[in-house]
Design a protein that fits this description.
The chain has a single domain, classed as Beta Barrel (Porin). It is built from one helix and twelve strands; from the N terminus they run αββββββββββββ. It has an eight-stranded antiparallel β-barrel. It has a two-stranded antiparallel sheet with strand order 4-5. A two-stranded antiparallel sheet has the order 10-11. The longest helix is centred in the N-terminal third of the chain and has 16 residues. The radius of gyration is 18 Å and the shape is elongated. The termini are far apart.
Length: 193
């Protein structure tokens, strides 16, 4: 991503948080990152760790920005024509999002984040791409105004059909998107509004 793209992403995230928010929220989350679809043919389950900041917009809406690392372990991949290859790497998601908290208790929530997914390791040939991550979760309040967050998040990265994973001139993954899920647990401050 060009420097202007990074600057634009930073400005977007700052605007999300600088709006009419009532209280700041900070949090971290961890969990397994599980490749789905054809991505599961070349990568095994890895891990995801995220940090986020945000703010409440009224009683039911949270806007947030997050950054993390979602890494995967390699499978042994048999290449057409013989030979094997192992790949390792992951993505660094840099995103903004919007969550809606439902019901009287405001513990159950749904929402989505979208933004840039920066590839690392052997996945760097994919370049930085746009992706989104719909999420569903439930917050359990704990002392001090914090909350424990249990969630399920689906990630879809749009890599484009002109950008396959290759080894030299041999293509072993040729899809126009990459997807995986994260089932995780987190902690956030600012649960009490």
């Amino acid at each position: 991503m060009k420097r202007s793209g990074w600057l634009g992403m930073g400005i977007l995230m700052a605007l999300l948080i600088a709006g009419p928010v009532r209280a700041q929220v900070f949090g971290v989350s961890v969990g397994p990152a599980i490749p789905t679809s054809d991505l599961g043919d070349i990568l095994d389950t890895g891990f995801a760790v995220n940090g986020f900041f945000g703010g409440w917009l009224g009683e039911s809406f949270l806007i947030k920005g997050d950054v993390g690392y979602h890494g995967f372990t390699s499978k042994e991949i048999e290449l057409p024509g013989g030979g094997e290859i192992e790949i390792e790497g992951g993505v660094v998601p840099i995103r903004g999002g919007f969550y809606k908290y439902w019901g009287q208790s405001k513990r159950f929530y749904t929402g989505s984040s979208l933004g840039a997914y920066v590839p690392t390791g052997d996945l760097e040939d994919l370049d930085t791409k746009f992706g989104l991550g719909p999420r569903i979760g439930y917050l359990f309040p704990v002392g001090g105004g914090g909350g424990v967050d249990l969630f399920f998040e689906y990630h879809r990265i749009f890599i484009g059909d002109e950008n396959p994973l290759t080894d030299g001139d041999r293509v072993f993954y040729d899809e126009d998107n990459v997807s995986y899920v994260v089932v995780g647990i987190g902690y956030q401050t600012g649960f009490s509004r």
